[in-house]
């Protein structure tokens, strides 16, 4: 299933392990953690509104169009979990994904899924309009280790019986290992502070160097003048 760390809680989307499903698909959400005691009530929230209270830390339903949205859970004496978003789509065909954002090195598994699990054949997966893989029966497309080139818009096509169908596109992003989008160095506040400090230091060094060189030149010019005087006097002494 899909396991997401949520502080002291975990909210697990386990059946199916996708963040997008078709109408009438069975869905089970599970609220799990390490500090639960028997008898604790589990409260479920959909788009901020309470929807279900029960003893068991799981919530199962058949997806309907109104079930799209953000889900959170809470058990007694625990904080509210972070949200998990579920999209319920009304269509014949759906490209399913466990996430919209992946880190470099993570595996990506996509699934071409049909309404009511009608048998599929001649299944093709596309990235940015280009065919990536074709199979007569295999409905999964796997990328063992994601890299930045795997970001893009994905969709699948397949035949339900003799009828061709195409899924709506899904945008997949692969990040370069950072948890969030990278901030350009030039806009980083630490970069600006460091830049100002370095420039100030260089200015101070340049100012000090300027006066040191000036003193050295003045001293050197004085020595040179003294040397010229001595040199001009020497022939006369001889």
TrEMBL record:
Nucleotide-binding keyword on record: no
Keyword Glycoprotein among record annotations: yes
One GO BP: positive regulation of phagocytosis
Tree of life domain: Eukaryota
An annotated GO cellular component: external side of plasma membrane
Domain Ig-like positions: 5-74, 83-173
Signal peptide (UniProt feature, chain positions): 1-19
One GO molecular-function entry: IgG receptor activity
PROSITE patterns: IG_LIKE
Membrane topology: Single-pass type I membrane protein
UniProt entry keywords in alphabetical sequence: Cell membrane, Disulfide bond, Glycoprotein, IgG-binding protein, Immunoglobulin domain, Membrane, Receptor, Repeat, Signal, Transmembrane, Transmembrane helix
Membrane spanning residue stretches: 190-211
Pfam families named among the record's database cross-references: Ig_2
InterPro entries assigned: Ig-like_dom, Ig-like_dom_sf, Ig-like_fold, Ig_Fc_receptor, Ig_sub
Location of this chain's protein in the cell: Cell membrane
PANTHER family noted in UniProt: IMMUNOGLOBULIN FC RECEPTOR (PTHR11481), LOW AFFINITY IMMUNOGLOBULIN GAMMA FC REGION RECEPTOR II-B-RELATED (PTHR11481:SF97)
Name under which the protein is recorded: Ig-like domain-containing protein
Native source species: Moschus moschiferus (Siberian musk deer)
